[in-house]
Amino acid sequence: MDLLSRVLSLIPVSGRLDVRCHFGAPWAISQGHAAAREIPYHVLLSGDAVLDQGDGVSEKLVAGDIIVFPAGRPHRIHDGSGEVARPPVERRNISLTIAENEGLGARADILCGRFLLGAVPDRLLRDHLPARLVVRSTRHAGIEPASSIADSRLSRLIGLMREESVEEGPGSETLVNHLSAALFALTLRFASEGPQAPHGLLALAGRPRLQAAVTAMFESPDKQWTLEQFAGLCNMSRATFVRQFQEAIGRSATDVLTEVRMTIAGRMLVQSALPVADIGEKVGYQSDAAFQRMFKRLVGATPSRYRASRGKLLSD
Question: Minimal CA–CA distance to 303: which of 286, 315, 316, 290?
Fold first, then answer.
């Protein structure tokens, strides 16, 4: 199983399409901090736009672009005119909310939704993705898509989401939400296969020489792994392995192993009735006290309290 599949099998992600925006310039979409376990996304179906995230840097968007905010930070997407946006008027159809304004300028059609993370520790996914991810499913500014096949799949998926959000057929709302979940996985795959894969988890996915170590982390989290053993699995020296792993993801293999272990443990706490000490042993901790300390440090709650909350972090 590849890295992305392994992570998504541990951290289930569903999708929800909230609003379809039909705007004429001047227009703007502003969002504050996302709620816990939510990753906002936007799909620019037609028109042009500008993305601002409060860092003084703007990014031009064109039709086919997908914008994902794994860190859930505030952001603003607008027409770029600098004029005061015309206020939108919302109406509810059978499957979703439609937002329209009275702007007479250039038109834009945008899908706005959220990816919802399952009730397991999500640091392994969220902390290893960039704060902002822009995936271009079409040619943009002379940049070729990473893969014509992936490009075609993304384009078809976006087209199907657009059709279902308009036609309002039986089951459209459920279907669009399922398509949103598929969009998450396909977007991450598309980004990881690009010529300039983002730093972190997506970059690690593009390092085939490191995959043996990553596979071992997921398949045998109970083993007392050393850096020398990981390096041996990858046919590297210890120094080369440490350097390449750090370059790819910005963290040590030991840190990632711990996050894998805590993610697996969190899922077992929610989905099984095994004693906490047994779960700790299954993810490599002979000492129950050591497991409990590490789980609380990374997740923010003791295993028992996490289980009692059914996987919801205490800060949720």
Answer: 290
